[in-house]
Amino acid sequence: MSLDLKIDGPDREHRPDHLAQNVLGHEIDRPDGWLKVKGEATYAAETFPEGLVHGILVRAPGIGRVSCANLEDVRNMPEVLAVVRDERLLRNAAQGGANEAPVQGVDTAEYVGQPVALVVAETFEAARHAAVALTVEIDGVEAPVDPEAVVPEEPDNQISTRGDLDGAMRHAPYSIDVVYTTASMNSAAMEPHAATAVWDGEVLTLRGALQMLKFNRNELADSLGLPPERVRILAPYVGGGFGSKLGISADCVAAAVAAMELNRPVRVVQHRRDVFEVNVRRSETRQRIRLACDTQGRLTGLGHEALVSNLPKEEFFEPVLQASYFAYAAANRDLRLKAARINRPATGSVRAPGEAVGVTVFEAAIDELAVKTGIDPIELRLRNIPEKDPDTGVPFSSHRLEATLKDGSERFGWNERDPAPRQRREGEWWIGTGMAAAFRVNMITPAEARITLDGDRATVESDMTDIGTGSYVIFQQIAAEILGLPTGKVDVRLGDTAYPPGSGSGGSFGAASTGTAVWLAGMEIRRALAERLGCDESEMTLRDGYVTHGNRRVPLADLVGGGAFSGHGRVEPGDAQEKVRQATYGAHFAEVGVNDVTGEVRVRRMLGSFSAGRILNPRTARSQCHGGMIWGIGMALTEEMTHDRRDGHVVNRDFAGYHVPVNADVPPLDVYFVEELDDWAGPLQVKGIGELSICGSGGAIFNAIHHACGARLRDFPATPDRVLAALS
Amino acid sequence: MKIELTVNGTARALDLDPRVTLLDALREHLKLTGSKKGCDHGQCGACTVIAGGRRINACLSLAVMHDGDEITTVEGLAEATGGTLQQAFVRNDGMQCGYCTPGQLCSATAMLDELREGWPSHVSDDLNGPYELTHEEVSERMSGNLCRCSCYPGINAAITEAGAAK
Q: Which of A22, A28, A291, A722 has a CA between 20 and 30 Å from the CA of residue A233?
C-alpha cells in the first residue's frame, strides 16, 4: 500500500490547519538535541566494528602522470596493511544527484590535491606516518588553471535574450554597467568527510558523511562495480553538509575498496586539508551587470553575464543566473552564463548554488542604480516586481517580496536613514546601512517515507538525512499532527538506505519533499483508522492518543488493536512545475562600521524578513536563517579560497587561512517570517528555508559599506586591503 | 607508553603509542567519541575538553603529556555540572548539525569559570574585573569554537541563560 501524490496543481484544503494536535508551527525541541549535547549522536567515524583499520588518502602535489617510486618500501613499513592504487578511486566527489560514479582514476592527477592512493595501517598513527613517507612523483603537463585565460563554453540552456539591451542602455536616462567578482569558496562543514566501510563478502555497509543516500548508494555501487542491492549506506547524524556531502566522496570509495581487498573494516577520514580540495567548492565568478531604467526607476534593460569554472568532464556549472530569470522584469534583456574548463579542484553545489552569489551581486548592482537615480532602494525594487515570470510568462504561485521588504523595512527602521552616504561617523568608524532582496527557487523532489503505528506509538522511517536542518523534529511534528499524538510518542529513524528513499538533504527541498511523504504516510494510516471506525477520515478527530468521532471517544491504542498499521507515502513533482513559477523571497538589512584607518568592516546588526510557506518549526527555521545570514557575512568579508596562479592549488586550505565567521564576527541577528501559505507547494504548503537567507545577505553588507563610507566595492570579500584601496 | 587518565571521574589505564593525541586517546582508545575532530590542527575547537579545570584543544596535546590528569569530556559534563547548560542549548537551539556542540559545551563551561574568576578578555574594558556576561564578552570568549552551521545566536543565548542561572 502506498498513498502517492504528484503535485500537478494547487491544494486549497489546508488540512494541517484543521487538525487537532496543534504541534505544527510550534517551537518543539529537536529529539536529537539531547543526544548531541551528551555526545551520544554517532557520526561517520564513530563506530568500531571488530578489526577496524585506518586509511589515509595520499594526494597529488601537481598536475600530470602519477607514479610512486617507493610503493613497495611503504608497503613494508611497520603496521602497514596496504597501499591502494586502484583505478576505482575517485578524482573528486560526485555532483549532487549524479546517481552514478563520478570521474575515477589514479594514474593522472587533473588538479593539485587529487587523491592518488590510500595507505591503510593497523593504527591511525602508523597510516599517517606511512602516507607522509609515500613519494608521489608527477610527470607534469601544462594545464589551464585561470578561468580568465581560456575560451569559455556557453551552454545553450543558460542563455536568455529578448529585445535590444545595447539600445536600451544607450537611450536610458539612467544606466549602470559594472563588473563584480566573487571568490572561490568552501562549504567547510565541521565534520570532515569520513567513511567506515564493512565488507562481509556479500554486502558492503558504509557509514558515511553524506546528504542524499538514495543517490549515494547508486554512486558507490557504480564506483565499486557492485549492484546497488549489495550496498547499504548509513548516515543517521551528519556534521553539516552545505552541498559538500551531496555526492559520494573519495573517502567512501577508498574505504570500500580497501575493506573488500583486506576483508577488514576500514575507516577513512579526510584531513581538513583534504576537505578543501577533494570534494566540491563554490566556483569563483565574474559577473557583469547592466541595468537601464526610465526616470521613474522602471527597468528597461537588464543584463547579467557570469563566468564560472569547473574541471573537465564535470556537468555542473554554478547556476549564477537562476534568480535573474524571474527576479525583475525588463523589456530588453540579455542573460548568459559562460563556463571555463580549468584544472582547479572541482566546483559543485554549495549552499544555494546560483543565487548565493548571483543574487548577492545583482542586489549590490541594483543598489548602484538606486543611488544613481536617487530613488530609495526599496522603492526601486517595489517598482520592478514583475506580475508574472518574465522569462516564461507563467504566473507566480505566490509572491511575497513586497511584504518582506515592507516588514523588514519597518522593523529595521529603514526610514530613519539619511540616504546620503558618508554621513555618520563614530571615532575611526564610518557607519552605514544597506539592504538587499532575497530570491531562491523552490523545488519538490521525489521522496518516500513510512510510518508504523503500533498501539499509540508511531515510528517514521526514511533514508532522508538530518544534516542539522531539523529533519528529525519536523517529521516528528508532522507525524504527531496527522496521527494526533504527543511528539514524544513519535520516533523518527533516518539515514539508512534500508528505509524508504527520501529526498535527501539539498536544494532546500527536504522539508517539503520528505515532509510531504511523511504526511502522506500518516494520511494513509488515518484513512485505515477511519475505515475501521466506519467514517471518513475528515470526520474523526485524533488528539493526544484518542480518537473522537461524533460522541464516541476511544484510545487510539484500542482502535489499532493488536496489529500495527503501516502507511507509506510517496510524492513527486508534477505539472505544477510548468504551470507556475515557485520561489521564496525575503529582505535583508545590515548596519556596518567601516574603519577609516584599518579598512576593517564590522557588521553591527542584521535583520532578515523571509517568506517560505508554512513554517513547521519556527525555532529550527530561524536557526537556518541565522546560518544563511552569517554565511553572507563570511562571503562579504572574509571567505576566499586563494588559488596559486601557477598550478591552481588551494593556498589557504584550512581554518587558519580560510576564514569562516567566528562568534565575534556575528552581531545580534533578527529573523522574522512573513506569513505565506503557497497552495502550489503541496498539502502542507511548505517551502524551502535553508538557503534563502544566504541569497543576498552579502549584498546588503556591501551596500551598507557604500552607505557608510561612500566607497563602492565590487570584489567579494571586502578584505581590509580592498576597503583601504577603495577609501583612498 | 603506559599512562593513567581520570576521565569523567573514572581512572583509565592506557598503553599508547607516544604519537597518539589526547583527542585520539579519548575517541579511539576509550571510545568516547563525544569529543570531535574537526581539523586536528587546533583551529576549530570541536575537540575542546576540560583538563585540570582548563579548556584545551585535545587535538594539540599528546595523550602521554596528560599522565595523571583529570579530563572532563562532554560525556561527563552534564553530570559534573548539573545539565543546565545542556538544557539551555537544546531550548535555544544552540546547535544544528551538532558536531561542534561538545566543544562548545566544554568551552562554555570553562569560559564561565574564567569569567567568574576575573580573567579579562580582548573586549574587556579593564584588566581588573568583575566582568559581565555581555554579548561582546560571550562572543569574544567563545570565538575559538567554530560553528559552520552558524548557530552563534543560539549558542550565545544558551550560554547567557545558563550563566545567569548560576
A: A28
